[in-house]
Amino acid sequence: xxxxxxxxxxDTIFALASGAGRSAISVLRISGGEAGRIVQALAGRLPxxxxxxxxxxxxxxxxPLDRALLLxxxxxxxxTGEDVAEFHLHGGRxxxxxxxxxxxxxxxxxxxxxxxSRRAFIAGRLDLLEAEGIADLVNAETEAQRLQALRQMSGxxxxxxAGWAGRLKRxxxxxxxLIDFPDEHLPEEVExxxxxxxxxxxxxxxxxxxxxxxxxRLRRGLVFAILGAPNVGKSSLLNAxxxxxxxxxxxxxxxxxxxxxxxIDLGGVPVTxxxxxxxxxxxxxxxxxxxxxxxxxxxxxxxxxxxxxxxAAEIVTHADxxxxxxxxxxxxxxGLCGVSILTGExxxxxxxxxxxxxxxxxxxxxxxxxxxxxxxxxxRDSAAAIAAALACALPELRAEELRLAMNSLGRITGAVDAExxxxxxxxxxxxxx
Length: 433
Ligand SMILES: Nc1nc2c(ncn2[C@@H]2O[C@H](COP(=O)(O)OP(=O)(O)OP(=O)(O)O)[C@@H](O)[C@H]2O)c(=O)[nH]1
Ligand SMILES: [Mg+2]
Known about the structure:
Layout: E1 13-16, E2 25-31, H1 35-43, E3 53-58, E4 64-73, E5 84-90, H2 93-105, E6 109-110, H3 115-122, H4 128-139, H5 143-153, H6 156-180, H7 188-220, E7 222-228, H8 234-242, E8 260-266, E9 269-275, H9 285-300, E10 303-309, E11 321-325, E12 337-338, H10 347-362, H11 373-391, H12 395-413, H13 418-427
Parallel strand pairs: 1-6, 7-9, 7-10, 10-11, 11-12
Antiparallel strand pairs: 1-2, 2-5, 3-4, 4-5, 8-9
The protein binds guanosine-5'-triphosphate and magnesium ion.
């Protein structure tokens, strides 16, 4: 490939499919029309399809490279739809480097990020929703993220979108019949029937749109900001929740100045906790900047926790949850969640309460939800077009809106307009996927 040229889609590509760095085994995958020839060049005759075989790999001069487990996965029933082989090599860097050189010498080239999945999409092995589900599963850090990504990867969302598309197609066919055969006098119930069906479809899409923010939040993770007056124990709370000594805690008010962040798992949801500078009037420029940043973080957070001192419950900010700390010194004011970070009293209940909030903010009921801004935009366009179609009296215009609605739905799974999206979507994958 010449620098600056677009990578050729017909090239045979290879990439490390397992994690980088030293490991017991690393899996190197190749895909493309030349995979079979290349396997034979390195490992002798082709192994039986889909059966592991142990082979000595050799370079062009016959020098041994490694003894490796080899899998031969001929297309079209492979991940990419092409001929694929997997080399399970010993995990040293030098082994990987030597085998990569031998593959280059045979004419294969390193894959771009997401190129295997992109080929799978082009071969019709998966749609865009499923491909994105794979990327999300690779990136999943918590249990709830794993389950959501797995649902998406296995096509649960695709089935819903395909169902909508099928119903829209039927509606459009009736609408076109009305246009093409105006004199045939289709019974009135036919038009009333498909208008009713359009309303039902629109309501389903709107319900899904309402649930979508939860799915997106789970995919990206939540942000919880801890705010409050100086010295109430904000940093102590962050450290306790993270179970690590991250923020400096001291009896001196105004200790925390920069906003500090740590990622934790609350109820299976990844949450970035932010500890901030105590809110108060100050002449100190640095502290004032810290306070400005604290307010900025709070404005962007999914949940604001205000910590107050149980002895003087001063709520200094808008908050979703108020926590009274230091209940070892005074009882918590009525209605507030009381805790003593010092003695641990009330801490488990507070942590459970935060986990509950995290789950509430990310759960959208049992149905699969759409998880990316891209899906939302397309679904919103589709719903808007159906609403416009319902408002049209002219059959031709109504049909045109219905076609727009179909197109927008097609963008979600990649049935329509995919080429423009592919670089964006697959470029964000890791290499080897
Ligand atoms: N008695 C008691 N003291 C506590 C408790 N939690 C924290 N402290 C003490 O309160 C003081 C302030 O704690 P920090 O966590 O630094 O408070 P902060 O809100 O981060 O303070 P700034 O960063 O200055 O805004 C420290 O001396 C802590 O040891 C508690 O539950 N009980
Ligand atoms: Mg602090």
